[in-house]
Amino acid sequence: PILYSYFRSSCSWRVRIALALKGISYDLVPVNLIKDGGQQFSAEFKAVNPMQQVPALKIDGITLSQSLAIINYLEETRPIPRLLPQDPKKRAQVRMIADHIASGIQPLQNLGILKQIGEKKTEWAQNCITSGFQALEQILQHTAGQYCVGDEVSMADLCLAPQVANAERFKVDMGPYPTITRINKALLELEAFKVSHPSRQPDTPAELRA
């Protein structure tokens, strides 16, 4: 497998966690979203992913983009350890939380949007994350055990940790979100989350390395 990734991309981090949890080794091709006006806009990368976004994963003779689609494919083809619960209700809750983050928070504060916002980008990002986290904190109070849904790491957790990292980057006050904070702390102690962390990637700048 070949993963096209950017160290700081939260969507790329989701996929790196999934690959680590499932023990899938891969070659990493860094795509710098800032350098050269954004390497994702090159003709070479557009041939890999016409949406010009990371991550993209070449695996089993196909090329996939969109982090949740990639994670779902890995789950269906390499189901151990599972990232979706067997119980249909819990499975729906996992998908709900993953979508809440991947559709309802992250795209509103990603690089492309913040470029358009300009000077007020930090305030914009904080507002988007805060409104999303207010809802997420309430949801997790009903679904969480040790992790987002019960006591097994799921696709929801793969979305949560990178989004908390974004929140911290934009200096969001995490005080009102004790459940999110607790789960994130537990996740960051797991090896798969450590090795896939933005501070430990081949393309991480020296000053941001762990």
TrEMBL record:
Belongs to the GST superfamily. Zeta family. Pathway: Amino-acid degradation; L-phenylalanine degradation; acetoacetate and fumarate from L-phenylalanine: step 5/6. The keyword DNA-binding does not apply. InterPro entries: Glutathione-S-Trfase_C-like (IPR010987), Glutathione-S-Trfase_C_sf (IPR036282), Glutathione_S-Trfase (IPR040079), Glutathione_S-Trfase_N (IPR004045), GST_C (IPR004046), GST_Zeta (IPR005955), GST_Zeta_C (IPR034330), GST_Zeta_N (IPR034333). Signal peptide: none annotated. This is Maleylacetoacetate isomerase. GO terms for molecular function: glutathione transferase activity; maleylacetoacetate isomerase activity. The gene is Gstz1. It catalyses: RX + glutathione = an S-substituted glutathione + a halide anion + H(+); 4-maleylacetoacetate = 4-fumarylacetoacetate. It comes from Furnarius figulus.
